[in-house]
Structure to design on (166 residues):
């Protein structure tokens, strides 16, 4: 029986580590601008890493905030554009976040946008990403699959039981 417990708990730990699947990924963005540290931010939970152009409505993000630069504006959408062209040369590519907002100010209406460039591949890789241009940060963190955490826990319990009996 001990041999079975040892093998099954070891197998559970190895499988759990090898299959460490993620149920989702959390994107946290905060971007300012020259003299505007509180310009825009949002949090998004996605079932996969973002690798293609994605346009998010206000209802599709978990939270968002438009800072004082956008006073009187309503968020229209947030565009996440991997592999965008930087400048008119068409050569340099970066990941781009574009915040697009409509405004209805006294005697005036229209729309405005603000954008931030990140290093290429930022949306498709886990970790913290920073751009010096407009003081923006992007954090991409995995959320572990609950069943994988259970498998790892069962394996650990099996090993603890084995050690106590020895």
């Amino acid at each position: 029986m001990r041999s079975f417990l040892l093998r099954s708990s070891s197998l559970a730990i190895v499988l759990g580590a090898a299959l460490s699947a993620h149920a989702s990924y959390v994107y946290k963005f905060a971007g300012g601008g020259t003299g505007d540290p509180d310009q825009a931010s949002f949090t998004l939970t996605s079932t996969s890493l973002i690798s293609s152009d994605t346009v998010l409505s206000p209802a599709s993000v978990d939270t968002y905030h438009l800072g004082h630069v956008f006073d009187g504006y309503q968020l229209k959408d947030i565009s996440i554009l991997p592999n965008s062209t930087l400048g008119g040369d068409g050569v340099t590519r970066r990941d781009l976040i574009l915040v697009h907002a409509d405004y209805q100010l006294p005697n005036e209406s229209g729309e405005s946008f603000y954008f931030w460039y990140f290093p290429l591949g930022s949306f498709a890789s886990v970790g913290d990403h920073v751009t010096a241009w407009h003081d923006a940060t992007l954090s991409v963190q995995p959320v572990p699959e609950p069943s994988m955490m259970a498998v790892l826990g069962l394996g650990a319990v099996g090993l603890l039981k084995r050690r106590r009996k020895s």
